[in-house]
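Quick start: load a record and inspect it. Here is serine-type D-Ala-D-Ala carboxypeptidase:
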Amino acid sequence: MEIKRAVTNKRAVVLLFLFLAVFVVLVGRIAYIQVTKEVKGNDLVAMAEERYSRSEVLPSERGSISDRHGSVLAEDIPAYHVLAVLSENQGKGNYIEDIERTAEQLAPIIQLEVEELTRMLTDGKDEGRYQIELGPTSRYLSFETKETIQDLKLPGIQLEEATRRYYPNQTFASHVIGQKSINEDIGSIGLEGRLDEFLASTDGSIEYSRLGRLNSPAENITLPSDGASVQLTLDTRIQASMEQAMSQVELEFSPEKMTAIAADAKTGEILAMSNRPSFNPNQHGQIENYLNYAVADAVEPGSTLKMFTVAAAIEEGYFQDDHYFQSGEYEIDLHSNPVRDVNPEGWGEISYEEGVHRSSNVLMSKLVLEDLGIEPFYQYLEDFGFSKSTGIDLSQESAGKLEKGRRSDAARTAFGQTSTMTPIQLVQAATAIANGGKMMKPYIVQEIKDDEGKVLQEGSSEVVGEPISAETAAHVRDLLRGVVTEEYGTGRKYDIQGVDVLGKTGTAQIAEQGGYLNGHGQYLYSFLGMAPYEDPEIVVYVSVTKPNLTTEQSGNDPVSMIFNAVMQSSMVYLDLEPNEEELLEEAEESGFDMVNVVGERTTYATELLEDKKVIVVGEGDRIDYQEPAEGVRVLNDEPILLITDGESRALPDMRGWSRRDVLKMTNILDLELDYSGNGYVVQQSPVAGTPISEGEALQVHLESTVPEEVEEMEEEQDQTETEDDS
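Running the structure step on this input writes:
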């Protein structure tokens, strides 16, 4: 018994130790797992979270871009991606069963060839794919396109919600606003790219258990962070006028390229900016021109530069209006071709003032080489901001280059050849002339605010130089006004009724393959102007390169179509009243005081005004309304509108009417006016004699009627001139 009991005790001790060993191992393992939270390299916490937790994205929004008045120019809107489910495991009706039928119906909607879509679906199915995407054209679809696809009720075609960048105005300041790229490997352009650090947003998330409760609200909710909103200095109404006019010129003249800028002369704010070719940022992969010519295109500007040459000469005391010089041709030196005016024979001995109005190259070269001196001249150009970038808050800006190598370079730079400048440099320099000598830095970003309303960045006016005195600036403005108003001035096409415009035309030769182009229309035509004359508020620059012109047309035709439209809209929307003083003076000299004919018989009223330009609207027996009213001074050739009491009213023949006259009539008859062009009416729709009622639409097209003899083409500089030492 004793022996048996001893064996039993030994066994018990062994078992005890075995148990204790297993217990220690288990406890150690449990402790190890508790500490490391890993089993065979697997993170138990992550596995648990994956099994028992779910997360959901809280979407954020990219910041919007708006104009100075808050009108949205770029924003995020809902979009949809197409997914094609190919796995038969999803059950009947939940995957694509008939590939050919699906491709035939879906391909036209997502802009794919039927064969291409068929191949994509077939390859995906052969590779055993669960689902596939259908390429770039199937992504970021609009709500309307999504509805169209859903109406097809195609088995296996799913739509995934996302967001896309939307530009509500389509082709509208496109090179300024830019485009948000849908390809992560390709950067965004314009302000969308430059300001991405502000505009970009960060999605949030929310995590919850499968049991439907949050584990820890504070730790499991990450709030989304929306992008900052950007407000620009652009004015949508002025920009729209610019875009419309440029599109019209593009249609009628098919130029190689165009640029236009409108700026506030007092602050430097950019009110509008556009180029052609342009693009619709809603359409990806269709951009023909990525360059913002307004800031990136450094070209020989032509005669627009003359205003700064003249300003320098006035400031130094070398320019007197009544001084005279011999026009026509000017010898530089023995090694260079002479400088010639647009009229190589010249206009004889003319005054400096007339030389500016006629855009004389000879005068400019003489001022620099004989009076100012080459070095002081270049110093003034640098003081005006040429040869260095303006620092505007846009990408791609070029600095241009002042050519200083030879005497001939200075002579030709004086009238806008050889040296290069950008449109934005010209606009900045022009603010000094408009603003009493103070040159304003251009800027386009007014304010950037985060999603809580905190201002992150703010634009402000900055004087970046005073190259000339206020007295010199006023003198230059006087001369530039004459360019537009004098009978021999080159800028007659820019003499807008009721708006005192001043400025300088330009016709720059285009350098290509070591020489300059020649021939009608083979130039860069431009105008740099401002208004109103006494105290300019707006500076506008327009250039049109190589337009298709008929023999009767000048380069001023397409340029003035844009400039005049932009200037007129600027006057209206910035509450700058048209200058009626000239109209009143003309009426005093050649007009009459309007009599009252309201209530009179129509026949009597027309007899009373028989030698006037009377327009009778309606077939009534008596006059119900008249415009102008009694006692108003009226020009002899100004239309007098007499509205009769008859129910039936027909449109009059408005050919030859100014836009101002058309507006009077449309206001009286309560018509919706849609006009294009500038100057005087040459076409109308409906045609004269068509019955019309309140609220109906009237379309008119206006064109300039400036006499041919004062339309100086100003293909000056140098249509006959070539550089022998270029």
